[in-house]
């Protein structure tokens, strides 16, 4: 008899304290069969709510709450598709205020213009303006028979007066009354969390927030019994809520969006245009006489694309790729699109699926209910050009980016709740540095920050922070997901301006779009493609001809030999600690080995315990056996061990009786935001299905564990192949062109696992010479010096872009001025290049005036003098060098420190090199000493080593183990920190950039590492520069 019609979930962003799923579950518990979700100014949670409502067989009403009017609180409910479109358009537009009108007038006009198909629930504000009756009369005239007066009884002091006003206006305008309490949480137990959310939103502490908080807990979802008791005097208003619900039959899950418009040749259909483009691509990829196998596959794919009416999607992707080719933007498709010969021939992907035996049906099949998904990687430094092309090509009405829902995670939740409860900021900062991802805030940690775990305030803080985790905080932009359609998108989903200029975003994330089965385009920035583009151009300049990715020699033995030693710093996908450790064990010898390598070190194979069996079988230490004869075809390429995502899907079909559609649903469930819940049902099905076919429990359990890993992150074979292609190219360049490799890697920063100083140190160990940034020689970007240009042979002149604080526009002007005539003095540089104070002093701090014969501190004095005189119009020529104080010579460690502070790198030496003698006296070894010790058979010895922390990693699959990479002047060394040692040294590990570590020397066939026992700060750590480590989870 009762339907909640004004319900706010936590997708009202800091104004609702329950997830949509919790609200629907509470409705079902109260035997309520319908609910309206009416979040504030948005429908961000409507798809997730609709999915949950479908699962519970409940009726969900889609709507939104508008609280921008001075005198009225309005809720709009969509009756049908026309109402939904109007609601979306309304939420997409900002009221335009013109002269003589106010904000209320503008918003009313907007609502009136978009009234069709909407029901209007209105309630006077607590302090209405005198003009309320006139405003209400004007508004309700446009909602004939579609307006209701919403009354909520919340035991407020002015409740009787306010309800009397509402009923008086309702009678005046013949507006039926509704029993419609405002709901902000599913249970009274969430009231405190709602108070906290309001405090966060308003930036106040709880003790000072009385006026900002709701006065009681009657804003929880009421039960049927509570409504009967509270509304015993007006049961008709309660029953009328069901009438409203019956009038709203719009289903958000029935939404669909038409394909984008594409450019067609005169008289051609999309089908004909796609066939023509693919035919041209076949000739380019396979020559003028392609094999029958190629022809048959192309025809098979085109026929399926045509039967599904997907030509527009493929043509839209082809347009983007063609734009990238015209503009010289390196791009490459990845993911399951690499299974398609059509994508290969359109230039969207670079992998020949026939050569690798990739299955097209993994990408597209008649059994799949969702559209294909093409991810296009583009150079990260030029991705914005591609994004703006899409906006220009399709128009702002027809293209918009997906949003990301940014949620409270543990660290942010603890900090924000702590601020609201009045905990000191420095204490919250310490706690934030000490906790790891998902790690409990235990008694030991609290004791370290001098908090009593039994104190009521501390318990409340932890409990509320735990409740807050997972709550939506705000929207951000998806890395590259686009919706494109021939129809205006804002009539389908609300569109709003993003924080970044020139971007618009929809109110749904990728999970919502995928659940609706909508076409989306993903344009993702990839640093490795920027690096490759720089490298290929540098190589082309060296050779005097254009060089492309396909021009690099394939299957180079020396490249594989280098990788087999774990020598892969800066190599795409192969530079992580885990990959470096895996390379010597796997010893890649061909391209497909790299496909395996890229996929093997992922949560899927690791959690499924597939890594060791594969390596043992590869080396002949374990026989290749299959858990069932039917699996030989599925797992033959990977020696009977499932490694790729599609192999697990096919195992489900062959070994557990899944249909193709069920296997595809399993694939979709792996990427679902409700993955933990959906996998439970799959687990039982897999275990029972394999048992029926005589497959051992051990193998079945490992498949289930692998599924859990794939839910975190796992590769399909085609995706791995696309990445392996880039990995091979970068590895080849590292092996055969180290200077070009290092220069391109520096040009592409920031990217990857290592900072600029580590890349430079690695290059120096490989024989690459580096010259510092200097106004007399450097360009904006780093450049290769050929042996003809420099007496000491090929090297790299670091660019002025490395100088922190130097403005690009001014540096480009500096380079242009220098090309006209060399600089003679600092004052001449400042005057001719029109440098501002920021750039001039930044160059001085970076010692970039050294080429003019002036040391950095003297240069700072001269720069200040030059800045003071730069407006003197009479100085037409460079003046003689100005006298300045002559400061004492800096020590080497001070020079290195200043280099790194001003440019993030130093060519004078590693920061630890000047301290090596002192370290030896303290019995602390270098990384080279450690490696010599292990070569002399010192496995198990206790040693102490020191270095800069350049990387910390604590992966989920490592069960709490932390991996640290230390760097000194001799190289890198991995440190393994057990959970116990980590807990004992947590604060030190998180706050110090240089450490001395005592531990036990370990080694295996592939690597050497130190098992940490004790960690300490270096005695001279305050004299070391701060190099930020690159940390991963």
Descriptive keywords:
five-stranded mixed beta sheet; 44% helix; 24 strands; alpha/beta; globular
Topology:
Blueprint: E1 6-7, H1 20-29, E2 34-37, H2 46-56, E3 59-66, E4 72-78, H3 81-92, H4 103-113, E5 118-124, H5 132-140, E6 147-151, H6 159-172, E7 177-179, E8 182-183, H7 191-202, H8 224-230, H9 235-247, H10 270-286, H11 292-307, H12 311-327, E9 331-334, H13 341-345, H14 353-356, E10 374-379, H15 383-394, E11 399-407, H16 410-420, H17 425-434, H18 443-448, H19 456-468, E12 472-484, E13 495-497, E14 504-506, H20 510-515, E15 521-526, H21 527-543, H22 557-564, H23 577-586, H24 591-600, H25 603-607, H26 611-618, H27 632-635, H28 645-656, H29 660-670, H30 675-692, H31 697-712, H32 717-736, H33 738-747, H34 756-765, E16 769-771, E17 783-785, E18 795-797, H35 808-820, H36 826-833, H37 837-845, H38 856-869, H39 892-903, H40 916-921, H41 927-935, E19 942-953, E20 962-968, E21 971-977, H42 979-984, H43 986-991, E22 994-1003, E23 1008-1017, E24 1030-1032
Parallel strand pairs: 1-8, 2-3, 5-6, 6-7, 10-15, 16-18, 19-24, 21-23
Antiparallel strand pairs: 3-4, 4-5, 9-10, 11-12, 12-15, 13-14, 17-18, 19-20, 19-22, 20-21, 22-23
Helix pairs in contact: 1-2, 10-11, 10-12, 16-17, 16-19, 21-32, 21-33, 22-32, 24-32, 28-29, 30-31, 32-33, 33-34, 36-38, 37-38
